[in-house]
Structures are given as structure tokens and as C-alpha cells.
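Table S2 (text version). Query chain:
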Amino acid sequence: MAFGPYTAFIAGAFGFTALVLGALILNGWRDGRAQLRALAELQDERSSNR
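Corresponding C-alpha cell output:
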């Protein structure tokens, strides 16, 4: 498959898109873990106050 004179632009756009999607996935994964830690901490505080 030949893209012609737009090969660099197309490859760059795909690369940038892959980079952004990877960053979004990583950020979501890290935030999910942080939310689970915060939830566990809140549950511990709630159970110790009873």
C-alpha cells in the first residue's frame, strides 16, 4: 500500500494517536488504582469509628 507524498503525515498522525490513547489508558488505570486505595482508606476510617 502506497500513501504517496503524505506518508510522513499519515504515519505521524497514527503514531500521535497511539501515543495519546496509550496515555489515556495509563492515566485511567493509575486513577482507578488511586480511587481503590482512597475507597479502602475511607472504609477503614468508617469501620474504626463504629
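Notes on Table S2: The first helix runs from residue 7 to 48. The two ends are 68 Å apart (CA to CA).
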